[in-house]
Amino acid sequence: MRRIIVAVLLALASGGPTAAAKPAFDVGKFVPPDAVVYVTADGLGAVEGAAGTFLDNVMPGAGQILDGMLLGRAPAIAAVDRTRPVAAWMLASGATVVALPVRDAATFTRLARQGIGPGEAVTTVDGYEIVTRGGAFDPAAAGVQRSAAPPAIAGQVRGFVELGRVMAARSDAKERADLTPLVGRLEDLPRIDFALAASHERLELNAIIPAGADGVLAKLARPALPAIQNRFLDALPADAALVVATSAPERMAAVSEAVFASLAVHERLGSKEHRMARRMRRQAKRWTALSRGDSAMAMSMSSGPESISVVQAYSCFQPRRARILMHKMTRHLPRTPGATPFDVKYVARVEQIGDVAVDQLMVGPPAGTGLMREPIRYAFVNEAAVTTYGADGLGRMRTALAGIGRGVTAPEIEKAIPAGALLAVAVRPGAFASAAASGDEYATFAVVPRGTALDVRLIVPAAALPRGPGLFGLR
Fold it and tell me: Which of 172, 199, 228 delimits the end of a domain?
């Protein structure tokens, strides 16, 4: 009996509560609560593999070249375990921290210390090498700290930027005064979440910018635009190297209003510059009132800078008032003191294309070179306006008038410009490169309002980039 009691007591003693073990440092889940910039990836191997296949699609061997460049600049990367999560962040204190999983801590530390500078430190925690710069960070406490919200978008590389806190920390009093009329209080700017992904076919960046309760971002984001394609894309030429499409100009006017307000703050009341800023502000408001709706612009360059031409198509419900405004704007064009004078004259109904009269804005020498060697042409038809300038302006005008309203858009342009975008920019980099081979696809940047936030997208297809050694500046 005595033996049984002793055994039970020993069992109870050994099975009682024990001291809690210190949590492991999990880079994949830990987000510092005071991080203003945070970036993480599930592993360098997956990221490098995806980026390498994308670059190899542009130029065979480019992935190996990039890897060699990285190893040459940071040889310690060779000791990193590329299958485990990595992370980097910037703290509100100004410190930057990089957490790297390593296969051989001794080799990594030796190589890293060869390039270490003042204010930098390397610490080992749970199989990770923590490299800090510019401030203090306690890696040992990381496992027990409260974690901030993780990035809101999934991707191979993902993270966030506390935009307001970053700008506030790096702006002096004058810079803050310049920025406040544009964006409001810097501390009120939202956190921007982003994700980056690469594949054999393309590179894609997505970001979410919360709209907030008020301010410029709220005006841009609310309400969401219907998923309808820009109605003026059919007026653009199929050989466009650059396309810009906008919708809801009254929202964009909120941005211009903020810009003009910022300019006016710095000009002496009653000065020439102050009067000019006020006049430009009034004209911008009037032009916005006349052109409510979609607009689209294309720039083409078929055979070098001399062949550059531009086509613009946009809503215009009052042609007569638009002509009057053009007259006023040309009378008050700013002149640079000491510069050779030039003549600007707006003349209505100079040419005719079918039933449509074509106006001209004539620019005299010395401005009458390059894009201005031909008159700028304007035509008004079916509550729309078309403008052309540069090479073959009359021919471009004829083509645009024939296409507008037909609903037939060049396939690559239609593919590049997303429906419902507030702003979209599509460019064919190959059209501006000297490389012998370049694709016809467009790289696209777009801002799409969602009501509570702005979605920002950047898509770069491999087929859009110049091919060959020009990728790395090699000839």
Answer: 172
Domain enclosing residue 64, as ranges: 35-172
Degrees (nearest 5) of the Cα angle 390, 391, 397?
80
| 216 token code pair | 């410029």
d(C-alpha 281, C-alpha 256), whole Å: 8
Q: How far is CA 342 from the centre of its chain?
A: 37
Residues 45 and 84: their CA atoms lie apart, in Å, by 9
> Number of folded domains in the chain?
2
Does some domain include residue 288? Answer: no
Q: What is the pLDDT of residues 424-474, one digit of tens each?
A: 999 987 776 654 445 678 999 999 999 999 999 999 988 777 665 544 443
Residues 154 and 218 in one domain: no
Whether 319 contacts 386, CB under 8 Å: no
Q: What is the pTM of this model?
A: 0.81
CA distance 262 to 280: 13
Do 448 and 422 form a contact (C-beta atoms < 8 A)?
Answer: yes
Alpha carbon 179 to its chain centroid, in Å, reads 19
In this structure, is residue 444 part of a structural domain? yes
Parallel, antiparallel, or unpaired: how do β-strands 295-301 and 96-101 relate? unpaired
What the block records as the tokens of 11 is 């069992």
Any idea which residue has 């002793």 for tokens? Answer: 6
Which residues face 149 on adjacent strands? none
Are 447 and 367 found together in one domain? Answer: yes
Contact 315, 247 (CB under 8 A): no
Containing 119, the helix (H) or strand (E) segment is: none
**And the tokens for 223?**
């309400």
Q: Which residues fall within 8 angstroms of residue 24, CB to CB, at 6 or more apart?
A: 126, 143
SS3 state at 422: coil
Is there a single domain that holds both residue 163 and residue 241?
A: no
Q: Which of 126, 261, 265, 153 has its CA nearest to residue 209?
A: 153
Contact between residue 237 and residue 399 where contact means Cβ atoms under 8 Å apart:
yes
Query: Are the CB atoms for 217 and 209 separated by under 8 Å?
Result: yes
322/316 Cα distance (integer angstroms): 8
The pLDDT tens digits of the residues spanning 311-330 come to: 999 998 888 888 887 777 67
Tokens representing 16 are 């009682």
In a domain, 431, yes or no: yes
List, as one string, the DSSP characters of 261-313: HHHHHTS-TTSHHHHHHHHHHHHHHHHHHH--S-EEEEEEESSSGGGEEEEEE
